[in-house]
Amino acid sequence: MKHFFYSVLCCLLIFSCKKDTGNNERRAQNTISTATWMQDLIVAYPNKNVALKDIMMPGAHDAGLYELSSCTFGANACNTQTQRLSFEQQLLQGIRIFDVRPTYANRKFFTEHATSCEGLGCKGALLETTYKDVRKFLDTHAELVILEISHYCKTSPSDTALLNLTSRILGDRIYKEETPNTTPFTRRPLQDIIGSNTTGKVVLIYEGIADNAENRAKGMFASTLLPREGRWTNSHYLADMLRDQVKEYNNFSNESDKLFQFSWQITQNELQAINCALNPNAPSIQKCADSANAVINTTLSQLITDNEIRKGRIPNIIYLDYSASFVTRECIRISLLNLE
């Protein structure tokens, strides 16, 4: 691990000395807005037919937990909160793929972060609020947003009330595949999926549903829509997460339509979670996230130097806690490297 960090330091020094391509990339990156970065790339590369396989998307883990309510005993912001920005703010800062975990309580649908259904944890923002934020954004931005809906508690993808809420708010912003398409979704031009230069689309991926024509026509997609490599590191040590995620990427075959996903979260262990309930200064999810997020730039730069990230071979998704525009800028940087 020491060698890895020494290499990262050397990488930073090398990058600081590069003048031509580095400056060109920075100039291009600075012309792209985090609120419209997908459409900006489509416009900048009209002959590329930019697809999900060509870009890197920032994601929000437990995206609705930017506010907390109805916490169980022992649960608080220290061991439960995973974001600081509302959905509207996350969207404007460029986040495009969201981990959404719905629960039904007090005759309303909430997001939730808990050890299990009704386990240790808290409810987050109302699902209605998050959906309204998505709708408001897509009504004025020709972007693609992906919601990965999973970890249901007292609801399911066949829950009529949940589906009615989704349809009522998101309506014609929902992407539907009413005509079968044999081109893998990850290879389809984003512009064809979005279908507009002024409004956007949301893709709804439901854990546990069948991948069939009937569901696709309704705008309900199985996880097979976005086949991926990469796996989550179940560790509370930064060094473990770094080593594991880099190793996963180095082993990425990149020979299929699969995307590569970084899961850039440090997981509290049981003792740390309990300590949060007892000690207000205990290491929180936010502190863990801050340490992990601080090394995203240097890690990606090192992978570029090692030629692991290069034109034609890039990571495509990075899920993290406390997402914001800093990670969008990194994703734009990698997307430009691949598209140039």
Report on the structure:
The chain is an alpha/beta fold. Helices cover 40% and strands 14% of the residues. It is built from 14 helices and ten strands. The protein has helices at residues 2-17, 20-30, 37-44, 77-80, 87-92, 127-138, 160-170, 190-194, 213-218, 238-250, 270-278, 285-293, 296-305, 325-339; strands at 57-60, 97-100, 102-105, 108-114, 121-126, 144-149, 201-206, 228-229, 259-264, 317-320. Strands 7-6-2-1-10-9-8 form a seven-stranded parallel beta sheet. The chain is globular and about 55 Å long. Mean pLDDT is 92; it is low at 1-21.
Say which CATH homologous superfamily is assigned.
Answer: Phosphatidylinositol (PI) phosphodiesterase
CATH architectural category: Alpha-Beta Barrel
Average pLDDT works out at: 92
What share of the residues lie within helices?
25-40%
Rg on CA atoms, Å: 20 Å
- Label the overall shape: globular
Largest sheet, in brief, is: 7 strands, parallel
The CATH C-level class name: Alpha Beta
Number of domains: 1
Topology:
Elements: H1 2-17, H2 20-30, H3 37-44, E1 57-60, H4 77-80, H5 87-92, E2 97-100, E3 102-105, E4 108-114, E5 121-126, H6 127-138, E6 144-149, H7 160-170, H8 190-194, E7 201-206, H9 213-218, E8 228-229, H10 238-250, E9 259-264, H11 270-278, H12 285-293, H13 296-305, E10 317-320, H14 325-339
Parallel strand pairs: 1-2, 1-10, 2-6, 6-7, 8-9, 9-10
Antiparallel strand pairs: 3-4, 4-5
Concise description?
The protein has 340 residues and is an alpha/beta fold. The chain is built from 14 helices and 10 strands. It has helices at 2-17, 20-30, 37-44, 77-80, 87-92, 127-138, 160-170, 190-194, 213-218, 238-250, 270-278, 285-293, 296-305, 325-339; strands at residues 57-60, 97-100, 102-105, 108-114, 121-126, 144-149, 201-206, 228-229, 259-264, 317-320.
